[in-house]
Amino acid sequence: MKKRLSWLLLLFIWLISLNVYAQRLPKLGMVSSIDQDSLLYASGFRLIGESVSKMLSPNLSEAQFQENLKQLKQTKCKVYVCNILFPGSMKITGPDVNEQRILPYVDSVFSRAHQADIPVIVLGSSGSRRIPKGYDNEKAKADFVNLCRKMAEVAKKHKITIAIENLNKGETNFLNTLAEVTEVVTKVNHPNFRVNADIYHMLKENESPLQIQDAGKLIVHVEIAEREIRSMPGVMGDDFRPYLKALKTIKYKGPIIIEAKVTDPVKEIPLSYQYLINQLQEVF
Description:
284 residues; alpha/beta; 8-stranded parallel β-barrel; 12 helices; 49% helix
């Protein structure tokens, strides 16, 4: 009887330890239409990223937004983040910035995000943040920092976190590295304005994983895809472990969200989930 109790106790401790281990791994999600919700969930994902224009934009009527809210309540995966905060026509850097247009816009977006229980909005917006050729980059940064402080206050009002994304030179000409994004976030110095470390863009810019360590606790969101054609993790077989090790070093607690081109969803989505889980298990 005692032996049986001891065996059961050991089994219980082992199961608990497995659960704790599983909890240490970052949650995985994917930027995708919520139409793919069932496939994502069946593959193991628990988070989805959608777009501001589709889910939260002020251009959507109240009836359209309410319909979106109904859809969000029915998804198996939580819609955790929306990206592409600004349309390309709304400039947030350079000589054509109009704060009287920008701040009411983000107030509406963040209000809707709060209603939809979407806590993170990614600030990538490559066209919106592109500066004119020959424009003073340092002036652009200084003006952008001031604007971001104001946007962060609006985000605070609605309990939203803005996560600014590093974008490679193929997509924009402003803030192309994680190091530059970290510099801006440090200067903004606001808890509702933080870093989205996009590993795909880091790979395109040949950035070292050490930049993740330098950004440290400023990172609240991570995105990922393979380097060459922005394919899903596992399609080309990219090794993300050096970057995942850097995330472990900084004790990163947030999710990792795939933002990639998908050719064959039924094949690639479950493949990518397992591929990333395998590399995470090796690292964490």
